[in-house]
Write a structure and sequence with these properties.
alpha+beta, 33% helix, globular, Ubiquitin-like (UB roll), five-stranded mixed sheet, DNA polymerase, domain 1
Length: 159
């Protein structure tokens, strides 16, 4: 498979990405789009550190070939906050101490954003299931789960 040019939208902006058709989306986002918030943890789709939203679905970008990004809408951690304010999930991660070393945090935040978009008031079991694809070695998960609960209250507040 030869090099190709992919047009897509990244964080709401038109983008053109170039690379080998089977290049990992993770690498192209970090290297070419300079969106380094997306982290590589395991490189095998097991840890969730590289999670992005691809056409509204949470995916491990280390497993997505560049060719699959053609025509897609991609949201990385850099696209979660608005220009002047953190997203409610990001605010809750800060308030609850849900972010430690920062490797898992972007993927955890995107997993929580994805969950709350589908289920505004998730149960504890729904939260655990939604975040199960993301591994963390620092917080022990309780602060992360608390951040999701906190974010539920923040997303219910008027803007």
């Amino acid at each position: 498979m030869a090099d190709l040019t992919v047009t897509c939208r990244i964080n709401g902006q038109a983008a053109t990405l170039r690379g080998h058709s089977m290049a990992r989306l993770l690498d192209v986002l970090r290297r070419d789009a300079h969106l380094t918030g997306t982290k590589e943890g395991c490189g095998e789709g097991e840890c969730g550190a590289c999670s992005v939203l691809l056409d509204g679905r949470l995916v491990n970008s280390c497993l997505v070939p560049l060719v699959h990004a053609n025509g897609a809408e991609i949201v990385t951690i850099e696209g979660v906050a608005s220009a002047d304010r953190l997203h409610a999930v990001q605010e809750a991660f800060v308030a609850c101490g849900g972010a430690q070393c920062g490797i898992c945090t972007p993927g955890m935040v995107l997993a929580a954003v994805s969950l709350l978009a589908r289920t505004p008031r998730p149960t504890e079991d729904e939260t655990r299931a939604a975040l199960a694809g993301n591994l963390c070695r620092c917080t022990g998960y309780m602060r992360i789960f608390a951040a999701v609960v906190e974010a539920c209250g923040r997303t219910a507040e008027p803007s």
